[in-house]
Structure formats: C-alpha cells, structure tokens
Specification:
The protein has 15 helices and 19 strands. With about 500 residues, it is an alpha/beta fold. The longest helix has 21 residues. The structure holds manganese (II) ion.
Amino acid sequence: MNTNSEIWFVTGSQHLYGKETLKQVDVDSTKIVNGFNSSGKFPVKIVFKPVVKTPDEILKICIEVSSEIKCIGLITWMHTFSPAKMWIAGLKALTKPYMHLHTQFNENLPWSEIDMDYMNLHQSAHGGREYGFINARMRKNPKVVVGHWQNEEVQNKVAMWCRSAIGWADSQGLKVARFGDNMREVAVTEGDKVEAQIKFGWQISAFGVGDLVAYVNKVTDAEVDELYEEYEASYIVADNCKPGAEFYENVRVQARYEIAIKRFLAEGGFKAFTTNFENLTGLSQLPGLASQRLMAAGYGFGAEGDWKQAALLRIIKTISAGMKGGSSFMEDYTYHLTPGNEAVLGAHMLEICPSIASKKPRLEVHPLGIGGKDAPARLVFESATGNAMNVTMIDLGNRFRIIVNTLDVIEPLNEMPKLPVASAFWKTHPNLADGAAAWIYAGGTHHSAYTMALTPEYIEMFAEYADVEFVLIDQTTTIQEFKKELRWNDIYYMLANGLK
Ligand code: MN
C-alpha cells in the first residue's frame, strides 16, 4: 500500500433529479469506495468526494486534484446523467491521470420492482456515454473500465489503473544521476533530455566519476565489514571471495561502491542512475555487485549511460511494488538459433537485478574481458521462468517510442558452468523471427527493462499519460501489420505533435 498517496473518487450528476436522488448517489458512491478499499486489491487509498452537480463544482474538484500533492489521480463515474458541457472547464484544468469507471450500482435489473424512479437513478448506461463523448471531443484519453464494481475482474482493472497512476506520479520529477556520459559512438542510448523532462518529468543530471570517488573514499572499513556480513547471509559466496582469500578485497571494493552510490543518490534525491565502463577514472572496477543490489533495492539502472532504460526500470519497479515477480535492466545478448527452438540468452556484462533470480545467487569474482579494469564482484544466477516482457524506449528525433515485447522465460536447455554472469533465457513472441524483426523495424535498443511483474497494459497507460508512441509485439503480431502501424504512427505523431 502506497500510504503517501490517494486517488480520489468523484461521481457526476446534475440538479435535475432532486435532493433525495442525489443523496442516494452519494450513499452508493461511498459504498463503492468502501468496497474498493476493503477489497485488499488496491495499492493506494481511494478517497470519496461528494457528488458534483454543476460546472463550478466540477472545476473546483479538478483544480483540487491537480493541486493536491497527495492526490495522484481521479476515478470518475456517472451514476446518473451529467450533461457533459459541465465537464469542459474541469477537464481542461485537470493535470493528473483520470479514469472513467463505467459501472452501475446494482448488478441486476430488479425485474418485478423496476419503475421510473429506478430508471432515473441508475443511468450510467447513457450518462457514461455522454461523458465519453466529451472526453473524445476534447481528445482526452482516460482509461475506460466497464462492469459491475464488485466484480473481481473490474476491481483488478481499476487497481491496475491505480498502479499506473502511481508510476506516473513517480515519473514526475524523477531524478536520474548519470556517472559519466553515454558510451562513445553508441547511437541508441542517446536522446533529448529536455524533451524527456517535458514529456515524463525526468530530471537527468550528469556527474564526473570523481564526484562519486569522493564518496567511495569516505566509506569506512567498519561499514564495509557490516555489508559483507549481509552478503554472506544473502548469497552463496565463492570460496575465493571469502575473508583472506584471493578475491576478498575485490568484493569489499564493490561494497564500498554500493554504500557510496547509495549515499550519493539519497543525498541528491536520485531514484535511478547510470554507469559507463568507459568512464571509470578513479574506480578500479566497474560497479557490478553494487549496481545489482541497488536495483534490488528499487533504484533504476542503465548501463553505458542509458538513462532512458534507467528511468523506465525505476518506474516499472514503482508500479510493481509488492507484486509477484522481479524487474531488471536487461540486454538481448546471444542467440540460440536451432530451428524450432530459437531463443535469446539475455544478460549483461554484470548488471542484472537479483529480484528476478530463480534461487539464491552466487557471489563470484571474474575478470571482465573488456575495459582494462580489475576483476569485479558480481552476482551470478538464472532468471525465474514464466511470463515476462522487455520494455524499451528510443528517441526518434521527433518523438519517443516505447516498445514492449512479451516473452516466455524458460529453463536454459543445458548447464552453462562457465557463464560468469546472471542471465535469462527466453522465447520471444510471436516467435524469434518475427519478434526480433519487429523489434528491429521499430528501432528497439539492445537494452531494455525486463519485468516479470507487469503486463503490457501498464506500460500502455503510462505511454498514454505522456502522449508518446507505444507499440506492442506479442503473440498476435504480424510483420505486415506491424510495419503499417509504424508507418501510420509516423504520420500521426507528426500531425498530432505539430510544433509541440
Ligand atoms: Mn549494454
């Protein structure tokens, strides 16, 4: 439960029906709010607000939603008919995510009792359509959830929307620290940081690695000792990494990095960070174990300066807080191309989050092979199996595009005793040939935020709040249709964005 935030619930009506009916509307709305709050499904408290009946009342509540920091979104419901011109000023003033709950208080028609009073009170079926028109007319795009409010699936969908609103709130003012710059000559990790701040609210700042080194140098031996104890308790530590052994000092160096980076991020209010193995002046190792553990603690991370995936991963971790399944920075690394059994081995040089691990990770030290630095400590494990997806974002010059590809994560087909990094082995939807081709046609990066907790719909809602392009590659994707979608989106966003 996100206790710092609230989502408000407001019901639209008008004065036409008289006091008694409006009183009943408030009573029914209160019951729905109480039902949601006691369901145990909601990640945030839903707060009842009295029924709105005039343009002034609607404008007032929308201004309050927009200005109240604790309020991160609004659920709107039309119990009766609420003439939608009344909503124009309010919706213009509303700056936070809102959804349209198209429900009705009673599940069943009261066949033997139904009369005109009943008909006047339960008008969602046409009241919601009037409200839907004004949202469409104003080119607003609130999430629409249809069904009885006590239905489990309906509650799950509303709760899902609430989580997306939590993600959007986290995105506003999200601070990303970049230690060093992007990897030299790499194209896809670049992007327009001003535009990212306008669209998503991200504040992305670069620091010299020397700024971090100053923090590393201040970490005490006692702090390192204490953190090493935590490593011993949490992981299977390789014999050559234990006190007195060959690589013990290499592990302690990562403990220093972890404490230093965490302190740096906390002091600056940063929730995500990037590193770059080319920018390590003053550090003897690439932060591996340190980055892995900070991801597990909820920080976003991107390697090679990839701030877009760092911010996305942070938001995914916020949206999925308390849900089953971990999330990690990821890279499509190497293929298994046996016909009929094509799959991807995802990994990175070091930085995969142990929240996705199938079992207790091993703490090991191995040389890196590139970068010319000391052998870094890292956690080695395999991902849990099941449904997952890769989420990535690219900058196309005139817009951001968010790409999602759903995956089946499976057991590796054989042991990999010499693989010195964490990994995930997956089948790409709809199959490797079309899934990878679609990803490549879309310009998707080799980096992504991999999640076993969320479904594509969460990311789609996030993209809609930001008004950026979202494309999905899943079981239903065909290359022919996907290429058309990309072409049409090019025109749509050119026209829709204009000079924005
Ligand atoms: Mn990489």
